Amino acid sequence: MSVIQEIRCSNCGAPITFNPGEIIATCRYCGFTCVIETGKAFTLEHSMILNEYDPTQAEELVRNWMRSGFLKPGDLAKSSKILEKSLVYLPFWIVPVSVTSEYRGIFERVAPPVVKEGKIEKKYDWLVLARKAAEFPTREYDVPLEGKIPYDFRKIERFAKILNSEMHQPQALELAKQQIEAHHQFLAKQDVDRIIEMKNDFSIGDSVYIHAPIWFIAYEYKGERYNIILDGATGTVVKGDIPSTKFGLF
Ligand SMILES: [Zn+2]
Q1: Over the chain (250 residues), what is each successive 10-residue block's mean pLDDT?
Q2: Which residues have CB under 8 Å from 41's CB, separation 6+?
């Protein structure tokens, strides 16, 4: 059970509510972003991406998605009932990073196995969800960074929910490194079957704290409940459950 707590905004005096575990909070009334523990201003860049759709349009996007693609039941758009649609501004850390990974491994698909060396050089704006428990397919979501603007509370819809960060920037950097390492191990394994050693060299730029608009939509089809995650900036479905089309046995 979560207990909502409250501090006073040191900029406008309004109450700022937050949940246990949250570390950075933003005032709904003036947009002031502070570190909860100290109440002091958050000093790194805080940005946002604008939502471009109202609830009716979001539903229309979902119906279009339901109508397209051959893997879906033919009557999906017609027979589904939208149960919930909520717009949430999710907090992310964007970590700009250049990574060089040098690895040595064994290529076993030939006889005798050979030792191979390789190098992976990549540049990322690596995305870290600033929530610990939330289930969100971060790797399937490209933050439309070209639409990034300084955080402006006046641009947040009244009906929208804003989630606060549950991690400080250093934790986000650490997570980004771990995730990139895992990703590069995956990439190296396309080349060698077994990795003997891997050295990663990170060059990290200034990270950005950003709120991005995501629609969480639930629908019902033939008595079952399914979920859809929709990008509020581009209108694309980031992830959507599709009822399995069962083929009858003749
Ligand atoms: Zn305030």
Answers
A1: 82 92 93 92 94 97 92 92 96 97 94 94 95 83 91 95 94 96 96 95 96 97 95 96 69
A2: 10, 11, 32, 33, 34, 35
Tell how far the Cα of 6 is from the centroid of ligand 1, in angstroms.
Answer: 12
- Output the CA angle 204-133-16, nearest 5 degrees: 85
φ, ψ for residue 28, nearest 5 deg: -75, -20
**Residue 147: how many other CB atoms lie within 10 Å:** 15
- How far away, in angstroms, is 147 Cα from ligand 1 center? 25
Number of H helices, E strands in the chain: 3, 13
Residue 213: CB atoms within 10 Å: 24
pLDDT at 247: 56
* 12 Cα to the center of ligand 1, angstroms: 4
